[in-house]
Specification:
334 residues; mainly alpha; MetI-like fold; 2 domains; two-stranded antiparallel sheet; 69% helix; 4% strand
Length: 334
Amino acid sequence: MSDFYETGPSKPVDESIRVDKVSPKSRRMHNLRAIIVVGLAIFMLIPILVMTSTAFKTRPDVVSVPPKFIFEPTIEGFVLLFTERAIAPPNKMTELLEAAETGDLGLFDRVALNSGQVITGTSDYLDRLKNSLIIAGSSTIFAVVLGLFTAYAFSRFPVAGKDDLMFFILSTRMLPAVVVTIPLFIMYRQLGMHDTHIGMILLYTVFNLSLSVWLLKGFIDEIPIEYEEAAFVDGYTRMQTFFKIVLPQAMTGIAATAVFCLIFAWNEYAFALMLTSDTARTAPPSIATMQGRGGIEWSAIAAGSLGFLIPVVIVVFLLRNYLLRGVTFGAIRQ
């Protein structure tokens, strides 16, 4: 038995019999495609790089012509973003200068003092960002949950007029937002839903539902129905089969659909501008309308846009594997 498991010394491999299966032409094409992809990625990242650099520039550097690529970074844009300021009176300016010399002033106060201003309070940017999180997150959850059950019904049951209903659901995304904004504004005013979180969550859920249904139906169609039939034979109910068989198999599609719904609700501008004013105002319209005492604060707008971008980047990064597999291959192949 020991002889059976014993192996002799490994023989050296004759390098002459190795065949390079990749031809020089294929290797050149591969390198060319890689260069093109890297070039496109750099080109697509240029706006992000410009926005990031603008967030750390002073006002003179932002509006300088030609643009400055080498500059001394500052957090002036973030100070303008997170605070409310006023022109400091002469006596107050003297006190602030003395406090700055003794180190009693905070970082934001010192930056505001450089432009002759004093901080009077905090801005509403964090409240707007919180509204975006609440509205976009809630509408995404509702759209995915409702879309999942609807897609399962269309995929597994003989629904009368299925094709017509699916087209009707899709047609809700064909109208531009500006076409329905005025009717929605009037309706929301009459129903008392203007400038409310519930109104915006309901609106984004309805607009995302069509996308959710169409995407999730494609993923559920790819799950073999034999899995469910085998579960029925074992005594599972329809609901148990859905949660124990279909739901785990469709998790890739659910994650991909959630990312797309979140991005739409997070970036939406027209509805948020027209249907909110203060309580439920989200970040996109508040960032775009940001004004300073001396005009448009481009560094503050860039800083706000950078902060607004980070949460979605984190979500997409955490779900990147599900998103890639969901978009390219779907849930499962039979």
